[in-house]
Write a structure and sequence with these properties.
Layout lengths: L3 H30 L14 H32 L4 H10 L5 H34 L7 H32 L4 H24 L6 E3 L3 H14 L6 E4 L10 E4 L6 E5 H6 L2 H16 L2 H24 L2 H6 L7 H16 L3 H22 L2 H14 L8 H7 L5 H9 L12
C-alpha cells in the first residue's frame, strides 16, 4: 500500500495539472469563439483584423503553455515518484564531500536541470511565436548571451544564499526557520535595493529621459503627487521586443521610474503622463510595500510548515526519497508546493486586480481618465492583447482586470463640466 502522503500528493497533482489543462482549453475555446467579434467598447478603435491578430497570438501562446504544462508534469513526476531527486542526491554525493557542499551542489544542479529543460520552449516562443506576430527583435546570439548572463548571475547570487540557508538549518536548532526567514528577507531587500543600479544594467541600457517637454510634464506630475525618485530613465527594450512597458524599481533613494523606449514611441505625451500616473498610484497606495509584506508573511508561514515536514519520515517516503537531508527537504518542499497552492491562485489574482483598479482611480484623479483609456487601447492593440479572455481563466491567471471592465470603470470616472478633473 502506498503511503498516505503519496495518495494525497497524487490527488493534488491530478487536481492541479488537470485544472490547468481545463483552464487552457477553456481559454482557447473562448478566444476562438469571439475571434471575429470586436467588443462593442472597442469597435471604433480596434479593427476586426487587429482583434483577430490578437486572438491568434493568444491562441499560439496558450498552445505553447500546454507543452509547458506537459513538461512540468513529467519533470515533477520523475523527480518525485520516479526517483529522480534520489538519483540526483546519490550523484552529487559521489562528487561533493560533506552534507553542506553536497546539499548546495544538489540544489544548484536541480535548478540547472529545471532551467535547461525550459530552453527549447523558450527558444520556440521567442523565435517562432514572437517573430511570427511581429514582436521579436532579438538575435539568437543575443538570446544566448542573455541566458549565459542570467545563469552566471543566478549562480553568483544563489550559491552563497543556499550555503547560508543550509548552514542555518544545520546549526540553529529547532528555530532554524526563523533565522532562515531573516536571511531570506534581508537577501530580498538587498536585491530590491541594488537591482536598478547593479543588476538591471547587466541586461539593458538605461539613459535619462532626453525629451525636455515630456520630462517637464512628468516632473509636474511627480510634484503634484509628492513622489521623489532617483530619476526618470528610458530602457532600450526595443533591442529584444516591440512590446512596450513602464515600471518602478528600487527601494528608498534608489527608486527610479523606467519607460521602455518602445512605449515612448507608441504613446503621445498626455498618454505617457496617464500611464505614469497609474504607476504612481501603485506607489502612493503602497501596493508594492503591501505585496512585499505579504510575501514575507507567507514565506514565514511556509518555512514553519517546512520545519514540521523536515522531521517527518512520511514526507520523504511519500515522495520516493530514501535519504533524509536538509537539502532534500528544501528541494521536495519547493517542488511540490505549487501543486498544493495552485487552487488558491484566484485569491492572489483578485488581490492584484484590486490594486490595478485602485491605481487607475489614482491616475484618473491626477491626469485625465480619457488619456489613460486611449493609452490602454493603444497598448492593447500594439501588444496584441486579447480583449476576450475566458472569464474563468482570467479568474485564475490575470493580474490585471479584463480590458472591457477596466475601460468601463475608467469611463465612469471621466469628469463632467459640472465636476471638473481634480489635479
Amino acid at each position: 500500500m502506498m503511503p498516505s502522503f503519496t495518495n494525497l500528493f497524487l490527488a493534488f497533482f491530478i487536481l492541479s495539472f488537470g485544472l490547468r489543462l481545463w483552464l487552457a482549453l477553456r481559454q482557447m475555446r473562448h478566444v476562438w469563439m469571439y475571434r471575429g467579434a470586436v467588443p462593442e467598447a472597442f469597435a471604433g478603435t480596434i479593427s476586426a483584423e487587429e482583434h483577430a491578430h490578437a486572438a491568434d497570438y493568444t491562441l499560439a501562446k496558450t498552445r505553447l503553455s500546454l507543452a509547458h504544462l506537459a513538461l512540468e508534469a513529467a519533470l515533477l513526476g520523475w523527480l518525485t515518484l520516479g526517483g529522480g531527486l534520489q538519483w540526483l542526491h546519490e550523484l552529487t554525493g559521489a562528487i561533493a564531500a560533506g552534507p553542506l557542499w553536497q546539499g548546495t551542489l544538489l540544489l544548484l544542479a536541480l535548478g540547472a536541470l529545471l532551467s535547461a529543460a525550459e530552453i527549447p520552449l523558450g527558444l520556440y516562443r521567442q523565435f517562432r511565436i514572437e517573430t511570427r506576430y511581429g514582436f521579436n527583435r532579438q538575435t539568437l546570439a543575443g538570446y544566448l548571451a542573455d541566458l549565459a548572463k542570467q545563469s552566471l548571475l543566478g549562480l553568483a547570487l544563489g550559491a552563497p544564499l543556499i550555503l547560508l540557508v543550509l548552514w542555518l538549518m544545520a546549526g540553529m536548532g529547532a528555530n532554524w526557520w526563523l533565522w532562515v526567514w531573516l536571511a531570506w528577507t534581508g537577501f530580498n531587500l538587498l536585491v530590491l535595493a541594488v537591482y536598478p543600479t547593479l543588476i538591471a544594467p547587466l541586461f539593458n541600457k538605461f539613459t535619462p529621459l532626453a525629451d525636455a517637454a515630456l520630462r517637464e510634464r512628468i516632473e509636474r506630475l511627480l510634484g503634484r503627487t509628492g513622489f521623489k525618485s532617483d530619476g526618470v530613465f528610458v530602457m532600450d527594450g526595443s533591442r529584444r521586443s516591440s512590446h512596450g512597458n513602464a515600471y518602478f524599481t528600487g527601494l528608498g533613494k534608489s527608486k527610479r521610474i523606467v519607460f521602455f523606449d518602445t512605449l515612448l514611441g507608441q504613446l503621445a505625451p498626455d498618454q505617457v503622463e496617464a500611464v505614469l500616473a497609474h504607476e504612481l498610484g501603485h506607489f502612493k497606495r503602497r501596493h508594492v510595500a503591501k505585496r512585499i509584506a505579504l510575501m514575507f508573511v507567507l514565506s514565514l508561514g511556509l518555512l514553519a510548515v517546512l520545519a514540521w515536514l523536515k522531521e517527518a519520515d512520511w514526507f520523504y517516503a511519500g515522495l520516493n526519497v530514501a535519504a533524509r537531508t536538509d537539502a532534500l527537504a528544501l528541494a521536495l518542499f519547493f517542488l511540490v508546493l505549487p501543486v498544493f497552492l495552485f487552487p488558491l491562485s484566484p485569491l492572489m489574482s483578485l488581490y492584484s486586480r484590486k490594486h490595478e483598479f485602485e491605481a487607475d482611480a489614482f491616475a484618473a484623479r491626477h491626469s485625465h481618465p480619457g488619456h489613460l483609456i486611449s493609452a490602454l487601447v493603444k497598448l492593447y492593440r500594439d501588444n496584441a492583447a486579447t480583449l476576450t479572455p475566458d472569464p474563468v481563466y482570467s479568474l485564475f491567471y490575470d493580474s490585471h482586470p479584463k480590458a472591457t471592465e477596466r475601460i468601463a470603470r475608467l469611463s465612469g470616472l471621466i469628469p463632467t463640466p459640472a465636476q471638473p478633473l481634480r489635479a
